[in-house]
Amino acid sequence: MKNSTKNILTILFFLTFSISFAQNIEGVVTTSENIPLEAVNVVIKGTTTSAVTDNSGKFTIDSKGRLPLTLLIQYVGYTTSEIEVTSIPVNPIQVLLKEENELIEVVVSSRRRIEKVQDVPIAISVITGKQAEQTGAFNVNRIKELVPSVQLYSSNPRNTGINIRSLGSPFGLTNDGIDPGVGFYVDGVYYARPAATTLDFIDVEQIEVLRGPQGSLFGKNTTSGAFNITTRKPSFTSGADFEVSYGNYSFLQAKASVTGALGSKVAGRLSFSGTSRDGLVDNVATGRSTNTLNNQGIRGQLLWTPTVNTNVIFAADITTQRPDGYAQVVAGVAPTQRAAYRQFDAIIKDLNYQLPSQNAFDRRIDQDTPWRSNQDMGGLSLNVDTKIGGGTLTSTTAWRFWNWDPSNDRDFTGLQVLAKSQNPTRQTQITQEVRYAGQLTSKISGVAGVFFIDQTSQTDGTEESGNAQWRFSQSTTSALWKTPGLFEGYGIKTDARIRASSAAVFGQIDWAITDWLHVLPGLRYNFDKKDAHYARTTYGGLQTTDPALLALKKLVYSDQAFDSSTDNTDFSGNITVTFKANDRINAYGTFAKSYKPVGVNVAGLPTDSKGAPLLDLAVIRPEKVYHYEVGVKTSPFKNSIFNIAAFKTDIKDFQTNVQAAELGVNRGYLANADKVRVQGVELDASFVVSSHLTINGAATYTDAIYEKFTNAPLPLEETGAPVSFKDVSGTNLPGASRWAGSLGGELSDSARFFGNAGKVFLAIDSYARSEFSSSPSASKYLVVPGYAIFNARLGFRASQGLSVHFWGRNLLNKDYYEQLLPAGGNAGQYAGVLGDQRTYGITLKYNL
Predict the structure, then answer these.
(1) Contacts of 613 (CB under 8 A, 6+ apart)
(2) Could you tell me the pTM of the whole model?
(3) pLDDT tens, position by position, 285-320
């Protein structure tokens, strides 16, 4: 009965649609073996009008009076077909797709119109949802293995930084007072929190990674690039897919998505993702493993098509993370310039303590403070697309929240140095973007828009000393330091609040001087305002009126409070010239002046010799970015791409993060480096060697230095020096590897499995990077060695029915660090964020 009702509604809908408008173009898409292809994307070139084939390979798309027009027929694993339509055909169009490399002619929407990626004058990498699933890239941290220009560093979700070309977020601990330089968008909604990048993808259609400033195309200004992620949309054709993976360390991941019509003009989609895994690090103090995975996410969408020219999508999502994890393992001890009795080995000897292991890759800890990294993130969005004239008017309204509930052991030992270290945060944001994109004249197309964001963040932190604090903080030989209970339970309560608002007008045009020569100027005007409040209050410890004891307590923690308010405006822009010599060669050159907004410190400030905060660091100057880039996108022979880009970025007043030696500066503080320069070359290539073999690779060379930074913090080994700052001009930026690259290939052949037509395949991919500094000021102890990892997959995949494959990651079981960081207080010990050891498992997927 249900199917009959659905069929009747479908027939009535199409009859009404055809009689009213008589603008439908119908067609059937099949393979060269005459097998119908379901879920093929059919797009009117240069617009956002699209349709999807049903299980018989049939599609219907409204021409909306645009004749002549070109249809793009796109399906992953097949060559995109272009069909010119000059009049409404009487009979359905027959479309035959040939199997080829899906990377060659994939289409993107990064310029607010649908076009081939090889025609876009931007350095851009595209990962389809299917590619991400097949390679196990279920979050951004895995994407960096496919796009080596991307770097992600995360000692926990809050302390996450995502960079492109070594720029974007200051390396180290997160400070809410500055904006990220890499934009993160999901279905047009800007996510302000870098923590969003640590959560699992949910039902992703495509991931576009744009490199370089993008201020004239996207709502939020981005100085180094953007992630433009699109999820799969609701369909009026019923469908569902289910996936489950199981691996060692009790890895379990389940995904599901269902879609279908809810009425003649309403369709829905509901998607779920869940991931769990046992810990990869053993805690000998608790007797159980830590660094587990425990993520769940759900996303729902409703599509309403009130008219043929208007689409409305309402979306809601929520994701949660409840791991016992993000513990760091002591990786080594650096001798500092402090007195001998203040060296780490001397301290722990006096306390009759020894580390559970001298080798970080034994993966053993004895930390006594629980590690908790709970976060909740979600939101609502309303997206309206309506055709007006020769373009589309889009409105994206969204509300989002992020709740962070942590607990950390910042001394990285089993000693009660810091009994508590936690800064729970509540953040909310409201965004509104309105833009118009389309053909303005026969020679000019473009995009123009306005954007607004208002966000608030509230942190109520606690840091508390334990019974070993006295020995780590001891800075004189006075016997008073040993006073029983002096520091035990002594700590600070922190109240940190920030409200940040930003508004912008932006736009870019594409002027086709000739068919082969285009000029693309873009402009942006930005207004930013930030108001911050910071206050910390000491509590606990030994209650005394003895001035000498009180003085010792103040050496560890002291009260501090300050307010700051600042605003700034900026004009920025870019100009690109693109020259398309022929269908195989597309060259471009770009100059961009970009801007990262003014910042404020909301995590405490270092103090002067009298204990007063250095208020001149309360406000951080905005970054001024000047970017130069040339690139060539080519298809040197059939079924191949080879792209190269060279870039140079100069930054004045680079916003950097400083890990302070003072415990009271809870999360470090922000500062400006005078001048930074980043330059490099990138290569992207993909080749279909035969119908059975494909090879793809990417490589990047990056030279990133502080050109001038005279008041940088001291490196770890110079803690205790008679000076407080160091000139690090000419040294490397943190997090920047000179070389990084990925290489992969797949061998496949047609096969059948349980009656399903598909392919049996063997795929291998690798990722490597050279060493990099893991400290704002280069330290010989905080250098992460270069490493390479290898992954593989073997199995069968089908567009319908059952797919199965076995997978392995880090097959050679390489020991490597993701990051190194000093312990709180800079006593000399430093810890590592460990890369995962060898993991393996099986994935089953079923498409209906």
Answers:
(1) 560, 562, 604, 605, 606, 607
(2) 0.85
(3) 988 999 999 999 999 999 999 998 899 999 999 999
